[in-house]
Prior knowledge:
Helix content: 25-40%
Largest sheet: 8 strands, mixed
Order of helices and strands: EHEHEHEHEHEHEHHEEEEEEEHH
Amino acid sequence: MKEISWGFIGCGEVTEKKSGPAFNEVPGSHVEAVMARNEEKTRAYAERHHIKKWYTDPQQLINDPEVNAVYIATPPSSHATFAIMSMRAGKPCYVEKPLAASYEDCIRINRISKETGVPCFVAYYRRYLPYFRKVKEIVNDGTLGKILNVQIQFSVPPRDLDYNVNESRPWRLQPDISGGGYFYDLAPHQLDLLQEMFGVIVRAHGYPANRAHLYEAEDTISASFISASGIPGSASWCFVGHESAKEDSITVVGDRGSLIFSVFTYMPIRLMTGEGDVQIEVPNPVYVQLPIIRSVIEHLQGIGQCNCTSVSATPVNWVMDRILGKF
């Protein structure tokens, strides 16, 4: 492919700034069409972003002869369906994270990708951001010595929307749509980064609980795991904590030092060694998905290689489903 003509399935918040505009920023790429179920919302989105076509039927978008690649930005429960539809039509897809609402659905996606020979990429865009590339550089250059342990600490207070009931409840809090509440929405980025740096997690155990009973999904989770490289780790997630406990950090402990970085707030990377305590600030691009989208496009154009495929993304779902006790 020389010119990548994208069709968007879904036009929610993530597409407004994080990803959507980036597709027009890369040479040889543009957004051709957009699709969502709500006609008024879809038309308004297309007009606002100067997209010439809009649909309310995903099959019509996929069948559009001028669309040759599909961006899937819907809730996780529909990722597998739309990805498989796209690949069977011979059109590569770029899917929002997590790849699917379950590990089993990830396996289905990978099987169809292999059968059709059509690639499927996943939006684990933090792998490509300068901030996390700097973290990986420090981990790999020996500054910390031998890596001994990693620890995830995450806590936030409930959001106002968390108190909504029934139909007005956010889709992220409906496990049949999201896969597993805020855990399935936020933890994928953290777990993907750890596996990118330290190798695939091969054992994982979790202790999920619902402590506040604001919604059906688990709101507090503790876990332990170990990577293929032998590095053990632990994690704690709380989505209903007090403001005083608010935290977003991953600590990497080595025998010559340690570092702390955030996944969502991009606080300065804190590096602690025998030479002192240093804080490193690394800016990210305005459109945070631009680096990975550029990599996907260059892969499709045959001038680069994107390693953020459905196969590389699947272990994240395996770990999450193990932590939630799904198998």
